[in-house]
Amino acid sequence: MLTSTTNDITGHRVTRHIGVVRGVTVRSRNLVSDAIGGVQSMLGGRVGAYVKLAEAGRQEAFDLLLEHARAAGGNAVLAIRYESNEIMPGVTEVLAYGTAVVVEPG
């Protein structure tokens, strides 16, 4: 599956537009990550415990996006974007979306 944040992929041409596809997940912090993150935030700098949680959410949303694109018949996703929203304290929705297309070399 080819992916891009741009509207095209160099060396390929779009032969069919399928439409918007998305992957969404909802993740919550846990007691351990909150404890580690709290200590790290007091020390300043990068808060690795929360970076890992954020990256896991984005990866899961991205994987679901690709799954949705494949199920719709696409072999590429263009204009990929991410959004996140805190649903309630400690619970975050992560959305990955883009346009599923069929591309061919050329």
UniProtKB/TrEMBL annotation:
Entry-linked SUPFAM superfamilies: YbjQ-like
InterPro entries: UPF0145_dom_sf, UPF0145_YbjQ-like
Ranges in a coiled coil: none
Gene3D superfamilies: Hypothetical protein apc22750. Chain B
Top-level taxon of origin: Bacteria
Family: Belongs to the UPF0145 family.
UniProt cross-references to HAMAP family, sorted A to Z: UPF0145
Listed PANTHER family: UPF0145 PROTEIN SCO3412 (PTHR34068:SF2), UPF0145 PROTEIN YBJQ (PTHR34068)
Record's protein name: UPF0145 protein ABN401_05255
Species name: Brevundimonas aurifodinae
